[in-house]
Specification:
Elements lengths: L1 H9 L5 H17 L14 H17 L2 H14 L4 H13 L3 H14 L4 H13 L3 H12 L7 H14 L3 H14 L4 H13 L3 H14 L4 H13 L3 H14 L4 H8 L2
Length: 265
């Protein structure tokens, strides 16, 4: 989860090459989160064959074999032209191949067929967030969060909070992150952003408390290391800051965070 959600929320900080890698990681997460196919057809068809076509298409998307994915999903679309599931899978494929206008179109086609399906809406909202269309993404994520029985509601709440922060609504973002941490006190992205927001507000002790929980509950990332360095320096823990700087250099030497660290030192 940590890598997927940091990929989603931090894509704008990456170089083009790293942004593409982050986008593929996000897409893999969205494909993997798919539930059982619920396809609708205009005429009798073999549901097992249709389900297999959709699942093969998604598998090929995850493996980066987009021609094979296109082959199977094209067949699935012929079998079930009104299937929201097929349109959602095609949208993910176009997202992976960097055809964003087509991805947007197919996400909307999926939702026009099943407007109450929170999984498809969450996928569309995640796409909008990856494109930095924060207001549009927030509107879609809010509808997902309003579905109190949606199985990935907490993650949608995190994404909504990220959108709110990007839209300069820090109070709403803080409330949402706090709510997420009541559901899951070790949610890595909620911990990261809560720590960051306390740091930005000058509440260094609180920032450190949340950062410690993040550090204990998830693997290190460039973002978490840079934040840890800033907190350590603010607290006068220079040895800790230096140790984290070495890790940032060795593990994430090509990251935007490391360049930011270098520019500040």
């Amino acid at each position: 989860m940590m890598n997927r959600w940091f990929a989603l929320s931090m894509t704008k900080r990456f170089t083009p090459v790293l942004r593409k890698a982050a986008m593929l990681l996000l897409i893999a997460g969205l494909v993997a989160c798919g539930g059982a196919s619920n396809v609708k057809t205009n005429e009798p068809t073999n549901p097992e064959v249709l389900h297999k076509k959709i699942q093969l298409g998604k598998s090929y998307i995850q493996n980066g074999n987009f021609e094979r994915a296109r082959f199977h999903l094209r067949d699935a679309l012929k079998m079930a032209p009104e299937s929201a599931e097929v349109h959602d899978a095609l949208a993910l494929m176009f997202m992976a191949t960097d055809e964003m206008a087509l991805a947007d179109d197919y996400f909307q086609k999926s939702l026009s067929r099943e407007p109450n399906n929170s999984r498809y809406r969450n996928n569309y909202a995640s796409f909008l967030l990856s494109q930095q269309r924060f207001a549009d993404a927030a509107s879609q994520f809010q509808r997902v969060v309003d579905d109190v029985l949606y199985e990935n509601r907490t993650d949608a709440m995190v994404s909504l909070a990220v959108c709110k922060r990007e839209l300069d609504d820090s109070a709403a973002a803080a409330d949402l992150f706090a709510k997420v941490l009541r559901f899951n006190r070790l949610h890595p992205v909620a911990l990261y952003y809560t720590s960051l927001m306390h740091y930005d507000a000058g509440s260094i002790s609180m920032a450190y408390n949340y950062w410690q929980r993040l550090n204990m509950s998830s693997s290190e990332s460039a973002a978490s290391l840079l934040l840890g360095i800033k907190i350590a320096e603010a607290q006068g823990r220079q040895n800790d800051a230096a140790s984290m700087a070495i890790k940032l250099s060795s593990l994430f030497g090509n990251s935007v965070e490391y360049r930011e660290y270098q520019n500040g030192h």
